[in-house]
């Protein structure tokens, strides 16, 4: 049973040799570079060889929401024939130096149609995005800020760049941008978890010291039960 995830990696690793056999360019991005720039539609699709990036949506009033993270073995930002208006409000930024294989949108769409394994993996990958969207809009939206935070930390403990259930690579700013909460509410909820001995705050990451107690605070939809 799959639970929601914000961090995607490894889904397309088995297709590495196939990707190399198709028309592509090798692209390197440095930390802070835009991979998907503001005010543009999807033009290129990338298979990540190394590094990690984050995709965010920016509201017209300046508010920002982090949507998800992608790392090694992932394909992003996607591929389709339509131009959706919301694409121009999205950006993808390198959180570290990244090496990628770059494909044109048309080439990757052709590959999707020709390769059954690619289309099957892509179908499952998009289903995970939809699952996250439904979880956030139909479930997480109705939780209070403390439960939202507990849910987020638990989900990252199960699926995160560090690969460790007690090492969460999120800053207070990241958490606020994912949950669309103000930093005061995030700080209060983190303080409560610290006071109860459930987490230990570090610079730019959070250590979970009592995963079972954190789990006890999470809503049912978040748990693999």
From TrEMBL:
Source organism, top-level taxon: Bacteria
Taking every annotated instance into account, which residue ranges of this chain make up the domain HTH crp-type?
143-212
The Cyclic nucleotide-binding domain sits at 27-129
Query: InterPro entries recorded for this chain?
Result: cNMP-bd_dom, HTH_CRP
**Organism per entry:** Faecalicatena faecalis
Q: Indicate what this protein is called per its UniProt record.
A: Crp/Fnr family transcriptional regulator
